[in-house]
Amino acid sequence: MHPATWHRPAAAGGLLPALSGWAGGTALQLTQPALWPWWTYALALAVGAGVVTVIAHSSRGMRALVRHGCLLLAVAALAFASVGLRAVAFQARSMPAALEGRDLLVTGVVATMPQRGSNGIRFQLLVESALADALPVRVPPRIQLGWYGTAGGLALGGETRPEPREEAVWAGERWRMVVRLKAPHGNSNPHGFDYELWLWEHSVQATGYVREGAGRFVPLRLGQTGRHPVEWLRQSVRQRIDARLPNAAQAGWISALVTGDQNAIDRADWDLFRATGVSHLMSISGLHVTMFAWLAATLTAAAWRRSRRLCLRLPAQHAALIGGPALALAYAVFSGWGVPSQRTIVMLLVICLLRLSGRTWPWPMVWLLAAVAVLLTDPWALLQAGFWLSFIAVGVLFASDDGAAQAPLWGRLRALLREQWVITLALTPLVLLLFGQVSLVGFAANLVAIPWVTLLVTPLAVLGVVVAPGWDLAALAIAALAGYLGWLAQLPYATVSVAAAPWGVAAAGVLAGLLVVMRLPAPLRLAGVALAIPVLFWQPPRPVAGQFDLLAADVGQGNAVLLRTARHALLYDAGPRYSRDSDAGHRVLLPLLRALGVAPDLLLLSHGDSDHVGGAASVLAMHPGAELLASLEPEHGLWALRPGRRCEAGQRWHWDGVEFTVLHPQPSDYRTPGSKPNALSCVLRVRAAAAAGQPAAAALLAGDIESAQELRLVSQGADLGADLLLVPHHGSKTSSSAVFLDAVGPRVALVQSGYRNRFGHPAAAPMARYAERGIAVFDSPHCGAMVWRSDEPAVVSCHRLARPRYWQHRDPVRSRF
Length: 817
What we know:
alpha+beta; CATH 2.40.50; eight-stranded mixed sheet; seven-stranded mixed sheet; 29 strands; globular; disordered N terminus
């Protein structure tokens, strides 16, 4: 077909509604709270295909507007149905609830390079068979496993020998091991990361851990299969990098750039990248792959022009359009073939194929076609921040292109500088919307870091795979870049954080960024500046004077409760530490506080157990103005980080008409020999001001006190009455005594516990006592983050249930909702 035919109104006009329909139908299906039966999607697929067929055969007799409208709806139905069928087929292989928590003997092949952590490794296993009590059972085909602790002895063909675990497990190996699995379940918090969607996108339908030495079976390596050779090669290269470079930080950067192992980078370095806006350069992101493709295309064209024979066979420009994406594809596959890389490769292939075909479509059509091509392979990309950042950046470059790419070298450098500035301005509102903060030094950082990493560090790092000294040179370049980024991060106001705005305000902010950078008249650009103001200065609503609200964050097994008054905030406990490099403060609480626009005035740590103070250091480091009140032992390290006070019964203060009272422990309790941390838990009662015609609502936060402390509070006549009770000790068997519940008399009770936690919290016996008294109990595994307001004391809002989606885990056996 001649390229000119693509400009005929019928062809171009039909393509636009078709592409729009596919994107719209995909987006609509992703809003479904639950999947329909498969036959409903099959029916919608048949109807959509039939309508498209009719339009294709009778388009001449239809008005253009009617034809385009019908085509849009028909293609939307096709997209909606096809994505729904894929989801139904995938969900049919989900983890059976009856097998959760049981010892299973599985045989499978390691499908990914193991990811190393401070307490073990994680890897994905393609299951070949599974046994429960010596009987075959069905488990999902792809599972994610953690193998924790030290590798005291791993069996290799019957021979046991000690070795580092990351060296003992290799991609492509077949293993037989005892594991315990559970359905994918992640924390559910406002503005938080959707871990269950991430697992869905990566085709993982069960997570669990290896039971080393469980029963009579020990983990047994059955041999190397030769499958997943790329993953095996990535692992061997990572091992060589570690052996070559003594500096762990520089080795981690190079491992991330060459093999895609982002876990090799320390958390402190990730904090540095976020502060300077260069995180995209250290993860194999869309921009990273695109820049690699650009470099590969440039080198391919330069080498091609050196041969007259090759140029006569194929123009150098066409060779670049083939070589660039081809080399980028090889790099993306070797670096882990992550979802962002897959999206980018699809986009690059679409654009390069269009250029090779000689078709010159308008840029909005090319942009939309690339987006739909990505959605065909990964419909759930629409819900990922990386998708929107990548495609809006590409759209901005398309729309603001001034043709400088064909200019001399100096003109191209000016164009690159302008493009970096345009992207920075255009994406700032979107970055604020998605992440709640933006780096003010990001432009200066990226101006140096993008060419430095793309043109120097990455080529040297890749060269090191063949010639090892390349890694030494790459390490020197990394050290220089780290010094520059560190200097920028120390500048005043290097980053700015804003509260998360509602979607309407946020959409206006994104539009503002586009208007500012587009080649438009000055009044429209000024309008864009005005539209950005609400995003930059948005403040979420706070309780009125005399009232307070309470948010029990979903941190897994641990406590973390945020209380807000009209102008103050208190954080009660800071959740658990998940590993040496990860804790609830860094992963859950800081993003939540940033999104809510909250800086806590006081951090109250009930006691020193790790599931209550694990995230405290992260919170205190980011909020230097927060005071510390705790029952920690005198030698606890947090006192050195932030001097504070011990909590003692009788302490009382008022914020904005709300009364805060510490009821436990007594000062003498700290002098009692052998007192357990649970017995010293700070018990806090918060009472709102009485409203017209209604009594004052109150909340009681009880930490991990047990029955002895509960009875003591009752016998002392403490004012325990409350509408809301944070269930003591996560609902353990040793707490929530009958006399205590009668004294408190709550309407609702909140349990902060982990899904299928090893302690069995909440236990059946105390939950029965709540049920006997008609107390509504909500727990974080089923509810996610829980929100309660003193002006509506009988109502608890569950984040997990506010906007349900079909990929989110719902426990069919234990669900209380």
